[in-house]
Design goal:
The radius of gyration is 22 Å and the shape is globular. The protein starts with 9 loop residues before the first helix and ends with a strand. Helix 8 packs antiparallel against helix 9 (about 175-185). The chain has twelve helices and 13 strands. Mean pLDDT is about 85; it is low at about 1-20 and about 190-195. The protein is about 35% helix and about 25% strand. The strands form three sheets. The protein has a five-stranded antiparallel sheet. Among the domains are: about 10-175, hpI Integrase, Chain A (Orthogonal Bundle); about 275-345, RNA polymerase II/Efflux pump adaptor protein, barrel-sandwich hybrid domain (OB fold (Dihydrolipoamide Acetyltransferase, E2P), Beta Barrel), CATH 2.40.50.100. The chain is an alpha+beta fold.
Length: about 350
């Protein structure tokens, strides 16, 4: 369906790919964050140190929540930050018919860092005004930090950091609906899904991806988050069909013992992992006629060549990116090239399920 005049589709609102013209990539964001921390540590006076810590916290909140500068400056830490749940609530001071409070998940590490900072005795009497800083002053400091890293000052602006965060999340395979919810865009109807995801389930999805990003708990490159739609139980094994937030159906087969141990049922929220070597690529124009239950069409978006193996990143129609590792010889034989359509194929026994 065409979008209304004057409105852009969500993929255009949230930058789907980082590039040097409009936002920073993950490595550049890391370099910028390190610049802020070194700047704070170089302060010689206590009042300067306190001021710089305030700027750092504002940067970190925008960098990891994707919030707007004005949203961060309106925060009252004692009321808007839940350090036990690692959640920041934006919009509590807003008004209007369509106004909504937005809870955004942050990592346990960032939550702990902010909590420790706010426990400083010098801040106890002014916590409610901690983020009440002149926006112009904030922007100037953001520009200075970007320039110190050799970036264009415009790429260090609060809105550019927010845009970079959105692109980073999408590139980490966080579902578009979860990214929109975090950044405060209106969430589209899940028309591709057979089941609905509640606000609490979307929040749980957000929590899963943020902690995965923070802890890097798995080596698996291909990770899906979703809800069980169907369970077909046999005498030894069970077939599980999960539906992701973007409407993609992923099929797995596990033992009945695992089904009972994980206490899985219809509607259970789970994650599915598929290691890159288990993902096969086929260049057929039509859907492959094979026994693999999971077959998705996409386009090769990136290639990383090694001496023996080549890593291919394929962007599926729903924006999800999948990684496959094949020998250079096989890639050459199939004629796999960046920008070309391919089928991503993996069987149900390659899928490992986790109960969150």
């Amino acid at each position: 369906m065409p979008h209304a005049a004057g409105r852009k589709p969500a993929q255009e609102i949230i930058a789907a790919e980082t590039n040097e013209t409009n936002c920073l990539n993950t490595l550049q964001l890391g370099k910028l964050e390190q610049s802020y921390r070194e700047w704070v540590n170089s302060a010689q006076r206590s009042d300067v140190l306190l001021s710089r810590k305030r700027i750092l916290m504002i940067f970190l909140l925008i960098r990891y929540t994707g919030a707007r500068l004005n949203e961060v400056l309106e925060l009252n830490p004692s009321q808007d930050m839940d350090f036990s749940r690692h959640v920041v609530s934006f919009g509590k001071t807003g008004t209007g018919k369509d106004h909504r409070i937005r809870e955004v998940q942050i990592s346990e590490a960032l939550s702990s860092e902010i909590s420790q900072l706010l426990s400083d005795p010098l801040l106890q009497s002014s916590q409610s005004r901690w983020f009440q800083v002149d926006p112009g002053h904030i922007r100037r400091k953001f520009y200075e930090r970007a320039a110190s890293c050799g970036f264009s000052p415009a790429l260090g602006a609060p809105d550019a950091i927010r845009r970079s965060r959105g692109a980073e999340l999408l590139q980490n395979n966080v579902p578009l609906q979860v990214v929109q919810r975090m950044l405060g865009h209106s969430t589209p109807n899940l028309t591709a899904s057979y089941v609905a995801f509640s606000d609490e389930e979307l929040q749980q999805a957000s929590r899963f991806f943020i902690e995965k990003e923070s802890l890097r708990k798995t080596s698996a490159r291909n990770i899906f988050f979703g809800k069980i739609r169907m369970i077909q139980t046999g005498d030894i094994q069970s077939k599980i069909v999960m539906l992701t937030i973007t409407g993609t159906a992923v099929t797995a087969v596990i033992t009945n013992d695992s089904l009972a141990r994980l206490d899985l049922g219809i509607g259970s929220l789970i994650t599915a992992e598929v290691k890159a070597p288990w993902v096969m690529l086929q260049k057929d124009s039509d859907e492959p006629d094979c026994t693999a239950e999971n077959r998705f069409h996409g386009t090769i978006s990136r290639m990383t060549r090694g001496e023996i193996m080549t890593e291919y990143t394929v962007r599926l129609a729903d924006g999800t990116e999948m990684c496959s590792v094949v020998t250079r010889e096989s890639g050459k034989r199939l004629g796999l090239r960046k920008g070309e359509p391919v089928w991503v194929v993996f069987n149900c026994f390659s899928v490992v399920l986790h109960r969150e």
